[in-house]
Each structure stands twice: as structure tokens, then as C-alpha cells.
Amino acid sequence: MTFKLIQLGLGARGIGGWFIPIQESKEWEPAAYVDANEERLNFVAKNYSVPRDLCFLSLEEAIKNVRADAVLIVGPTSIHAPMALTALKADLHVLVEKPFTNTMESAKEVVREADERGLIIMVGQNFRFYRTARTIRKLIREKFVGELGAVIFNSFAWFEHYRHGWRQDETDDVYVINQAIHYFDDARNMTGLDAVECISATSWKPKWSTGRGYMSITTVFKMENDVIAIFTGSCDSKGKPATTWRFECSNGTIEAEGRGLIEGKPLRGLIEEKVMVSFKDIGMLEVDLIPMEMEGERYLLHEFYDCILRKKEPETSGRDNLKSQAMVHAAIESFHTGKPVKVQREFI
Hints:
Blueprint: E1 3-8, H1 12-24, E2 28-34, H2 38-47, E3 55-56, H3 59-65, E4 70-73, H4 77-89, E5 93-97, H5 104-117, E6 121-124, H6 131-141, E7 148-156, H7 166-170, H8 174-178, H9 180-191, E8 195-203, E9 216-223, E10 228-234, E11 242-249, E12 252-257, E13 261-262, E14 265-266, E15 275-279, E16 283-287, H10 296-310, H11 318-337, E17 341-342
Helix pairs in contact: 4-5, 5-11, 6-9, 9-11
């Protein structure tokens, strides 16, 4: 059994991240493609053998003209909520790229609409669904190295696409909304803990930054069980791209490096991923990664399909993602006020 999917958004993420996985999926069939830019529609029709009559300038037009089961939203954050509501009100399930929406209220409105209609709203937090993340999650939750005390995440790269376009136009808090959300969600996913308070948040702009908004941040969160989560990230870094995780536990540490990056593009399959465990009296041990038949966007598509088929809530449901979104907005408030901020924990 296959489901039919409308893809809204044919920009860099739409083509580079989602187009091929959808084409290759045995569970999804493309129903239509939507983009407000007619040149993109023409490009897709010409270069990917897509019938031009399946390309539309608006989601409303696509819904009127094709039969579909769900919508994938890959456009600017500002359109996520209105497009999700349009799809839900047409009784279509929704998979929306991260960040979920640009405000907590709009995110809650989308979740309420999905609940009332018995539909799936899922957020594309693809970082959850890679072998490294799943392996660390298992080690932490099984207390392989003892009780968790602190989490330290670092991510440095130069993201050219963050310097222009809708990311710069929508907000000055560019990095925390569009990129740090990955690592805040990682912290929750890997530890099984939710954030209690943003103790501090600082955004800064190095002199060589070419973006309008802030694209470097450091945040400190207090999580449940008094665990501290520290994240420093920047897409203004001109050195070697690097992403690292370190988990301080009662009997040792868990350490890992993320996928390699060149100009912000992941080199999947070219960089060997490792998760290392360090015990004081034993030294460093490499841990076997959990095998996965599919990762990233392909896993998200499978999870979305399975949740619709089985009528179950996704791991990265809109409801769950409210907790990660709350970390983003607490960090923004803390940065702008210079004060600690409690993280919202009651939503609907």
C-alpha cells in the first residue's frame, strides 16, 4: 500500500534533501509539487521528468486538482503554520520541516487542529534518525556509563545559505531558530529529559560575519534530574567544520563526532562515524553503532507512513516538538533580557 504526497517547497532543502528520497520510496508516491516560484516548477518538470500538470503555484490549487493523503512542507518557517493548517483543514496529514513554526502560539494552533481532526502532524527533526544519535540515546538511557550529569554539544561550520534569503529576512535570531533547534532536540532525544530552565544564552557576531542576524550562540540549560546541557554553535566558522557531543557520566564519558561537512553539505558515507566510551581505569572503547536500514529524511518518510498506517503518534510529533520549540524561545528571551528564563512545559 502506498500513500500519495504533495511536496510544498522546491528550494535547496526541497530538492537536495527530500526530492530523491520521495522518488525512491516504496511507501510514498508523489501526487504534486508546489512552489510559489514558477521557474522552480519549470526546472523540476524539465530536469526530473515530472509532469507539468502536477506542478502548482499554490497548495490550495494542488489540493483541488489531485488526490493526496498528506503534505510535506519545506518552505520558509513563516509559511509552515498557515500551510499546515490549510492541509489539515483539507483532511491531509502533515510532515513539516524543522523549525516547526516561528511562534509557540502558531505551533500550538497546528497541534490542536490536528488533534481535533485525528490527523498526524510530524516535524522533520532528521538529526534524531542517524546511527550515531540512536547509539548514544541507547547508551544514555541504559546507563551504560552510569548516571548522566552534563551534556556538551558543539557545532561549527560556514553555512552560505544562512546569509541571504528568508532566513535573514524573517528574524535576527537566525541560528537559534533554524539550526540550534537540532541540538536542543538532540539533547531531549538522547537523554530522555526535558528542559527546565535556560540559565543563560549569548548570541554574537564575529567581525567577518556577512549575515544580518546572529549566527553564533552559546546556551546553558538546566534539564530534568539537574542535568546541565551546554551548546555552542556557529555558522560563521571559517575553519574545519566540526560537530561534537560529550556526555559526562558518573563512571566515564561518551563522546562522538558528527557527520563531516563541506560548505554546510553533509558528506554522508565519506566520514566514518564513531561513538567512543571512556572509563577512567580502562581508557577509550569504540562502541558498535546501531544498524539502520535507512537514516535521515528516508527514515522520517518511513516513520510518517507507518504512523498514518497504524494511527499512532510519531516520535517527532508536533506535540513533542513543542518542548524543543520552547527551548528555542526561552534561549531567545534569555539572550535579549540577559536573565534566566523558565522553559514552558505545559502547552495544550
